[in-house]
């Protein structure tokens, strides 16, 4: 028994609509997954940076007091620590586009383009 052409095209239309709906849902889920991964990466990086900053902050205070006791002047000790940080800051200011911005952009692109292990 042959199908009627009208039934075939109606069934094909329903199948194409279902396929497109499924593809849109899949695309939405992939976007949500990538967004969640990037958010997790940014949040964990922010937490690590904040905790690292706190460690450096307190070590700097301790170093300032230690150098201050060596120089018999706390002002001089803290001035030496500040000078060290200014010297450390200069390369970051000069090369921020190459080091920092490109690294962040590459990490985000890497997360967006990461293929799932289950995919063929």
**Which parts are unreliable, with pLDDT below 50 for 5 consecutive residues or more?**
none
Compressed to H and E, one letter per element, the order equals HHH
Classify the beta-strand content into a percent band.
under 5%
Question: What is the 3D shape?
Answer: rod-shaped
- End-to-end separation in angstroms reads 39 Å
Number of DSSP E strands:
0
Instruction: Please tell me the total number of domains.
Output: 1
Fraction of residues in helices?
over 70%
Number of helices: 3
Q: The biggest beta sheet, please?
A: none
Rg of Cα set: 29 Å
Structural class per helix/strand content? mainly alpha
Average pLDDT metric = 87
Q: What layout of secondary structure does this protein have?
A:
Layout: H1 5-71, H2 74-94, H3 96-113
